[in-house]
């Protein structure tokens, strides 16, 4: 049963705490309203003068050449299609590389930025400025600078605050170089512009840091490019130009191998053409010298065989020449990281695949470097190791191919030697002429082969297209993404609510004074007998006959609650004490005595705060002999009791003169006789004693008391003093201790005081303010922080 009671009590305290919090924050409603209004005003100023930020987005598709269908052995399809798989992440790095962005900056001439200056902010006027800057000479193109243009009229202006007027098209010189302004539109007099210059690398770096390049979805080849800028047209132009530059870049990379092949073939064609011309000259000269017009077809069969053998030899020599050329090309250290001309063929599928893989590895390495990957990166080192391994494999394969070709040539030459031995019988002139023809045919075959390869390279260059395709062009979005009006306003409201809440929370954390019943109840289990509101009356006695004020009713409630504490004790002695001076002991003692007297009980109040007696002065009565005189044997008790004027059944026993040894005086045996006399002659005895937290007087007198009232004053008693009350309560040092919460006000954040008539435990309504003067509207608004409408701290007249 005891556990159930404790749980119910804790539950009630939690509910009470929730109410405290509710009334605390509701009472600060004016502060919340003012804070939210100020926050919304700041938000309005921010939205009014913040520079808007716009966003543009473009979409790009990266096609994978390795997934294109092949027509098998179609020679032209093999020439026009390059193998290799596109890595989307590598392409993203290329799109975000500074070299590619520098091409964008150069293409759009973004080295110069144009801003229109206003009274508070400046706007980016890209493509809408009434002029453009043309630089004839820059003193240092790597250093940024600004030009301030102030228009005097539509066609004249000052530069950097100079006094000399300048017109459009007029060349002027300053500390940064030689310039002129070209007119692009109409400028108004008084307009001011700022032109900012940065070198290409700086502008490209800023754009690279601002642009976002990412796949549209995981596993797709569609890439989204997003850029935020203070000018919507600038963002769209940069994205579109970047997509175009990327297409050109990829096409240039694809044509590198074909262009190298074409250059190699052109060089070989020049050499072979010269050799053919030399052979033709020798043949014509020989025929003229020997008057040969038409050689007889002697030994046609032998010559056909010899021709066939020579043809095999020539074809193999061409292959040997190509193999030696590729081997020499790979062995040259200058060509370590350049693709091998792939237009030449040795009709060896394994070697062709190895050369294709070698070229793909070279292109991937170059793409990583162009994407900004440093040379010492592990990806670059892995790619270089792959290239070197492929190069060694190709060289080994070439050695095998050359050995095979040499064997074939030796076999063909052997057959040709047999045929030649039979031709020796022919006339010598015919032999010479046929030899010349054979050499001529061999060179012509090589020439035709090289011409075919040259045409294939030309076709490959002409037929190449970019691997990228623009899916969506970026458009100039007229709606800014920053600042977001609704988000800023919502944030302002949240901040406007949080700041006062934080302010109230900090005040509560820093407050070490008792402000609510809950501050007491959460520290001690001692009963709170009642609450006494703040008195606005000029009279020290509030609880008098005919007074139905709130404070008077609260004292009547305390009188009723005392019946349960005293449990029908006849002629009780009530001890009134507190933690320290100024908490309202005398005020509570006199008014408690008054309500007891109103109930028909003959009541006496003892002024036992013999160190600082102020009960008589509180009641407006003159000083008279009292307890000290009795203890010194200089007066009789019956002569010391004084009736309180205009109050029936209420009497006072003064302190008398302040003794030099008050603690020892209270140990006198006559104190026992004093209380025996008082209990015989009075129905209720109230002891107004010294603060128990400062001296031991109350502890000394507690043995004569039936109940103790511990006075706690709102906003004055420290919370740590409640621990002292709990100690007295637990140890029983003070008899039947109860707490009276005094001077409770309707302060912001602390709810209402009093019990009221049907208004709830510990909370009431505006009914309890009937003693106070009606506040004005300004006082109601400024009262939450304890200030009057003139800004001065309120000083409420009260009698405690």
Report on the architecture of this protein.
Helices cover 49% and strands 15% of the residues. The protein has 23 helices and 21 strands. The longest helix has 58 residues, at 232-289. The protein has an 8-stranded mixed β-sheet, sandwiched between helices. A 6-stranded antiparallel β-sheet has the order 3-2-10-5-6-7, with no helix packed on it.
Brief summary:
The chain has 800 residues and is an alpha/beta fold. It contains 23 helices and 21 strands. The longest helix is centred in the N-terminal third of the chain and has 58 residues.
Helical residue percent?
40-55%
Q: Strand order within the widest sheet?
A: 14-21-20-15-19-16-18-17
Oligomer: single chain
* Largest sheet report: 8 strands, mixed
The mean pLDDT is 79
Rg estimate, integer Å: 55 Å
Give the topology.
Blueprint: H1 2-27, H2 29-49, E1 54-62, H3 75-80, H4 88-95, H5 98-108, E2 112-117, E3 122-124, E4 131-138, E5 145-151, E6 156-159, E7 166-167, E8 172-174, E9 177-183, E10 192-197, H6 200-210, E11 212-215, E12 222-229, H7 232-289, H8 300-331, H9 349-370, H10 378-423, H11 428-463, E13 468-472, H12 485-510, H13 517-521, E14 527-533, H14 550-566, E15 573-578, H15 585-598, E16 603-608, H16 615-618, H17 627-631, H18 637-640, E17 642-643, E18 650-653, H19 662-665, H20 670-681, E19 684-689, H21 697-701, E20 707-713, H22 719-731, E21 737-744, H23 777-782
Parallel strand pairs: 14-21, 15-19, 15-20, 16-18, 16-19, 20-21
Antiparallel strand pairs: 1-12, 1-13, 2-3, 2-10, 4-9, 5-6, 5-10, 6-7, 8-9, 11-12, 17-18
